[in-house]
Amino acid sequence: MAVCLKGRSFLTLKDYTPEEIMHLLQLAKELKAKKKSGIRDKLLEGKNVVLIFDKTSTRTRCSFEVACYDEGGNATFLTNSQMASKESIEDTAKVLGRFFDGIEYRGFSQKLVEQLAEYSGVPVWNGLTDEYHPTQILADFLTIMEHSSKPLSEIKFVYVGDARNNMGNSLMIGATKMGMDFVAVAPRELFPSQELVDEMRELSKETGATITLTDDISGVEGADVIYTDVWVSMGEEDQYAQRIKMLEPYRVTMDMMKATKNPDVLFLHCLPSFHDLGTEVARRVKEEYGLDEMEVTDEVFRSRYSVVFDEAENRMHTIKAVMVATLTGK
Ligand code: CP
Ligand code: NVA
User: Fold this and answer.
1) What local confidence, expressed as pLDDT, does residue 40 receive?
2) Is 136 noted as a catalytic residue in this protein?
3) Looking at the CA of 135, which ligand is closest?
4) Theoretical Cys-Cys bridge with 75: which of 68, 88, 161, 318, CB 3.0 to 4.6 Å?
5) What is the pLDDT of residues 126-163, one digit of tens each?
6) Residue 240 backbone dihedrals phi, psi, to 5 degrees
């Protein structure tokens, strides 16, 4: 049966079947090809979307705005709203649902984005919460499809680092849905929650995925993809000392890339990344802890393995697919 996602929210990949995820990836591929060939379309003509960011963003915000304008829609970036401080989430959602065809929310609580979806009556898109970052996974998987000759179901996907953050959780869910061999290489304290692991192991019986958690770096052997993320996520800025201690052995280095024994291995990172001293945060960490690089070395980040900027561009094409699919049913 043809997939139709009209009216659906996109809050976590848990809510989407493998076929629906593949539909979004294929649609993103088509929309990307269309844009590259210079065709401007009007798939979102007459649609108004609102973007709310309680955490900072470069890629996600720009993706929603450019994607919307590319297809003839209008995007309102909402700051200084009454939401949560002077007006409940429920009331705000009901108001926004009267004005807008779709709502994007980035912030701390998954419950908040779920409440927006429950009360607004329009599709709500999760632009990142403490628990999940589902739109990022679509960009990651599209990038793998573009750079690997293997289908997603044959990919050995190794996530290295903080495996219990929004990226660790969402990548494990996405990989399980798509039938991949998912390995989290992380210190035990940073394994994903047992509850989520059990849920995904149950699902893997249907999809053919495998899920391995290990604190042993040799788990990278045979990887088609090495993925890492920052050691300290937004909202956890008091955690640097502990995280550096736990995660320094898990930095993605050229030795780790070679330990995959796969000359075609890809390096992915959702970005932003602390691969050099080009940021205020990295310079503070250098002063306090003496590190020049955090989760990945500059050498790997800039190497031929790295597809991080293709991945960043794909945020826009995949977010466009999410909006087009959920607002128009295409
Ligand atoms: N990867 C990602 O979500 O980037 P931004 O924080 O810049 O949106
Ligand atoms: N785990 C990171 C992802 C940023 C895109 C964070 O939440 O800060």
Assistant:
1) 86
2) yes
3) 1
4) 68
5) 999 999 999 999 999 999 999 999 999 999 999 999 99
6) -55, -45
